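Support request, please re-run this one:
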Amino acid sequence: MIADGRKNGEVTTFFTDREGGVSQGCFASFNLGYFSGDERSNVDANRSLLCGVLGIPPENLIVPNEVHGNRVMMIDHDSLRVPMAERDELFKCDALVTTCRNICLGVTVADCVPVLLFDGKGTIIAAAHAGWKGIVSDVLGETVRRMREISSVASSDLYAEIWPSISTPRFEVGEEVVERFRSLFSEKEMSGILVREGYPKPHINLRGAVRARLLALGLQDTRIWTHPDCTFSDPRYFSARRDGFACGRMVAGIMRIKN
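Re-run finished. Output below.
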């Protein structure tokens, strides 16, 4: 269910695996994503199980309908009153920010990079879904900008956690994708993102791209933590590139704990 978790003051973060749920077949068993073909009732049941572990009611788990872009939404207590049936359309974005306690922000992934951010005092938190399209659309820049706008926090005071995603050896891309990365990253940055040696086609280091972008946005290297697991290589996780789009999704989540 929860594969790994961390705590930093009042902020708790976690990442789920694929075990301990009710979904069947290619979604077995702890699928937390609505949009890859599983029965919605199964996902609802799995999310309720997760919320039970987190100690929050299901409506306090906010997960966006991700569109692989750079839209960031602010979540407040009014957001919790949005009916579940309306959330798919309202929360159509790739990053969430809140200053509220006891609300869990989550993003679903099955190879894309989940990035969780919070400030040193634990007063503002964010969750970003950074697939390659989101990265080159600068979802991270928009998320950091929104956090600074809301709380006046300095980028250097932010912490970032990069949770499991597909690793460089498993992420082959076409030249058109390489060019999209060149539109955002400098040649120096690309030297740590683009890998050609040893492969017939280019490979992209997505987690390296996330780290490079966060550094460019002003975060300190010592405040960026990266989980080592590869979702493609590790059978504990769902992987869209390994298993096809019709597979489950994990959630990376962040929450300010209510004292």
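The chain has eight helices and 13 strands. The first strand starts at residue 2 and ends at 8.
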